[in-house]
Specification:
Elements (H helix, E strand, L loop, with lengths): L5 E3 L5 E4 L22 E6 L12 E6 L10 E2 L19 E3 L18 E9 L4 E10 L6 E5 L2 E9 L2 E5 L2 E5 L3 E5 L5 E5 L3 E9 L22 E4 L7 E12 L2 E9 L4 E6 L4 E4 L20 E6 L6 E8 L2 E3 L16 E8 L14 E4 L9 H8 L6 E3 L4 E7 L4 E2 L1 H6 L29
Parallel strand pairs: 9-17
Antiparallel strand pairs: 1-16, 2-19, 3-4, 4-19, 5-18, 6-25, 7-8, 7-28, 8-15, 10-13, 10-15, 11-12, 11-14, 13-20, 16-20, 17-18, 21-22, 22-27, 23-26, 24-25, 24-27
Length: 444
């Protein structure tokens, strides 16, 4: 297919017309009595009408038929997608998963929606406060069906295989080491090109935004210009056999039918769009004197709670960078955290655990559960020569960090059969190095 085009910027006021229909955006108003080309005007609101202007999110879509033209929604099976956080008893242990299995196409065709499985989460979509963490494993494209999430935003992190996402705003190609955010209510369909796997962070009640930079200044971390949103593209396609619109609503799935493609938006304008970001564009900041800095310096996007400085969820990455700190244990420190930490690995090896934590797998260190480097990492780095070195070269690990105490689903603990029950062994051989006769060395 031809190379896709994008517009750059984060949260900008964008406007786009499919070049096949020049002048399809109304001039000077949003909702004229008659729209150009006989289109329907439809607003998609991502915030309350009365939100302060910096937080007000909406887009106007000019489409061949409005999205209201469909049969009534009916409940459909949810598979392993769930918001039931009480299926099994709580488990505060350190948890690690081997790479999640991808179904073989020769055995069964599984598309993006059918391949959604919830690992953990907390909160409630009805009260618009909480998160869900899912994985997707699939081998087939979505055909004559689309998905929209009425509960919240999806941040999709591909791990294996590129995905082509068709949205009401246009097309987005996303590869491993990129992310895409499909915001609440946006309809989309996913094409895949083989066995495909990735992670999803879902947030209810808030949208992702760039973290404040504070003393860092005006530039750094994920720069706004590197975020890309699609340009308008439409299809005027009738589907006599029926097109399915799948709606995630209050944690359940529902489906309705219509006889036309929902990707019939000829033009649009606004600041409420899907967008993607290449993680290799992240401008890393790190300690250049001493000590291991807190991982918050690697925050790409945050979904803020109502408490200042506390996130519903942060998306944090651990990209290739230089390590130069003197007199310092350079890997991540041992830690107990008032936040929950879910980690995934897109490629390579994670610096604190070179073995066991594999691409396509995951780990969860729950609220106040101790975690940190394994024995091998500690012993090696306690005596390593501290010269400048590249850290995490050829890797991309990430973390979904949340202020919620997350529950693991029955699928995550049992059904998937990917839980690594030997994980705790990586710390068993840690030994005491305490020396009561230790004396400080004489100052030079």
């Amino acid at each position: 297919m031809a190379e896709l085009k994008y517009m750059s910027g984060f949260g900008n006021e964008f406007s786009s017309e499919d070049p096949r229909c020049p002048g399809s955006l109304p001039k000077g108003q949003n909702n004229p009595q008659l729209c150009p080309y006989g289109l329907y005007a439809e607003q998609l609101s991502g915030s309350a009408f009365t939100c302060p202007r910096p937080a007000n999110k909406r887009s106007w879509l000019y489409r061949i038929l409005p999205s209201v033209k469909h049969t009534p929604f009916a409940a459909m099976p949810c598979g392993y997608l769930t918001e039931n956080w009480n299926e099994v008893e709580p488990d505060p242990n350190q948890l690690r998963w081997l790479p999640f299995n991808i179904p073989k196409s020769a055995e069964k065709k599984v598309d993006f929606v059918a391949g959604l499985q919830t690992v953990c989460g907390a909160g409630d979509a009805k009260s618009r406060d909480g998160i869900g963490i899912h994985v997707y494993t699939c081998n087939a494209s979505m055909v004559d069906r689309c998905f929209n999430n009425s509960d919240g935003d999806f941040m999709i992190v591909p791990q294996q295989g590129e995905i082509l996402i068709t949205t009401e705003f246009g097309k987005i190609m996303v590869e491993p080491q990129e992310i895409v955010v499909i915001q609440q209510g946006m309809r989309f369909s996913v094409d895949v090109f083989g066995e495909t796997r990735g992670y999803i962070l879902e947030v209810y009640g808030a949208h992702f935004e760039l973290p404040d930079l504070g003393p860092i200044g005006a530039n750094g971390l994920a720069n706004p210009r590197d975020f890309l949103c699609p340009v308008a593209w439409y299809e005027d396609r009738k589907v006599a056999t029926g097109y399915s619109v799948i709606n995630k609503y209050q944690g359940k799935l529902f489906t309705c039918q219509q006889d036309f493609s929902p990707f019939n938006v000829v033009a649009w304008h606004g600041n409420y769009t899907p967008y993607k970001y290449n993680l290799k564009n992240f401008m890393v900041i790190n300690s250049v004197a001493f000590d291991h800095a807190d991982p918050s310096i690697f925050t790409v996007l945050t979904a803020k709670s109502t408490r200042p400085g506390v996130a519903i969820a942060d998306f944090v990455i651990f990209p290739p960078r230089w390590g130069v700190a003197d007199h310092t244990f350079r890997p991540p420190y041992y830690h107990r955290n008032c936040m929950s930490e879910f980690m995934g690995l897109v490629k390579g090896h994670y610096e604190a655990k070179a073995e066991g934590f594999q691409p396509g797998g995951a780990s969860l260190h729950s609220m106040m559960t101790p975690h940190g480097p394994d024995t091998e990492c500690f012993e090696k780095n306690s005596s390593a020569e501290l010269k400048p070195e590249r850290v995490a070269e050829g890797t991309m690990a990430f973390m979904f960090e949340s202020s919620f105490s997350m529950a693991v689903t029955k699928w995550g603990l049992q059904t998937c059969q990917r839980l690594d029950k030997s994980y705790h062994h990586c710390w068993e051989s840690l030994t005491s190095h305490f020396d009561p006769n230790w004396k400080p060395s004489k100052p030079e």
